[in-house]
Amino acid sequence: MTETAPRPTLEAVAARAGVSRATASRVVNGGDGVREPLVERVRQAVEELGYVPNQAARSLVTKQHDAVAVVIAEPETRVFADPFFALQLRGISKELTAHDNQLVLLLTEGRDDHARVARYLAGGHVDGALVFSLHLDDPLPGLIQGAGVPTVFGGRPGWSDGTRDVVYVDSDNRGGAREAVSLLAGLGRTRIAHITGPLDQTSAADRLDGYREIMGDAEPSLVVESDFTPGGGERAMRELLDRCPDVDAVFAANDLTASGVLRVLREQGRRVPEDVAVVGFDDMLPVAEQTDPPLTTVRQDIEEMGRIMARLLLRRLDRRTADEEPGGAVVLPTTLVRRASA
User: Fold this and answer.
1) What is the mean pLDDT for each group of 10 consecutive residues in the chain (342 residues)?
2) β-strand partners of 221
3) The pTM is what?
4) Bridge partner list, 171
């Protein structure tokens, strides 16, 4: 066996730089009040010795952990099967990494997990939280507020009591839906259906509102609730064809739902787009470009949403800007992407 060399200590850094341990500590931990020549000497000593700060000790000094919890209110089977979450996590991770922060992923399999997540957040393990995929009756926001952790939400929160000061990032779900349905109407389609996402989530509810703003008094039978999954899209499309066999267009609430819709239409011998035109929502390239035919869809910049969520939270955590108002909401625009399905 080989013996490992002892880790360089802060005392060794101070001795190499010719400064006190307190001065070395202030430089290493980002403190103020040290003259620039001394700062440079400490930094040079850190580099020469290969010193790595002890995070636990550093946290005691700075009261910060350089770690952010990402809380997704979905079971892991959903999170790891849906590219949406991978894209959003990639944006979050890039932003946190650029600011030397760690990402701690917390998932909720069910209601029993909510108290566990709240205890973890209240335990002082992280500096803040990014929370998304909430459902309207989800207790997580209240539990997180009780934990006293700075938080940014992904998606418009569903509560309307006006008592919580929230910061969130969302896409223009309603406007994107209007554009999708307007395209189908402009193609001369008259029996335009909508397969929704779970209506206890604001993104799905907003897309349904956008559909209704264009369709006006559309028959209730043309709207079928689903769950943002390919299997849900298949089930909803079969139900829709039983209800309304003359349907000639479908606006699906997301690309995964649309992929299930296309599969059923193909099984039923319906040509796309000749017999039934289909439009999705998200423009997740692993899905939209590989469906048959390639999917016309509404693009939202999912990765950028994650980046902005992380950026807003880091601003709230920055001592220099902690008293500044970071803005209650950031709503990103959407873009219609034409492919072969409509």
Assistant:
1) 66 87 80 81 86 58 73 89 94 93 88 83 89 85 84 84 73 98 97 96 96 91 96 98 96 98 97 98 93 97 96 83 63 97 96
2) none
3) 0.80
4) 332
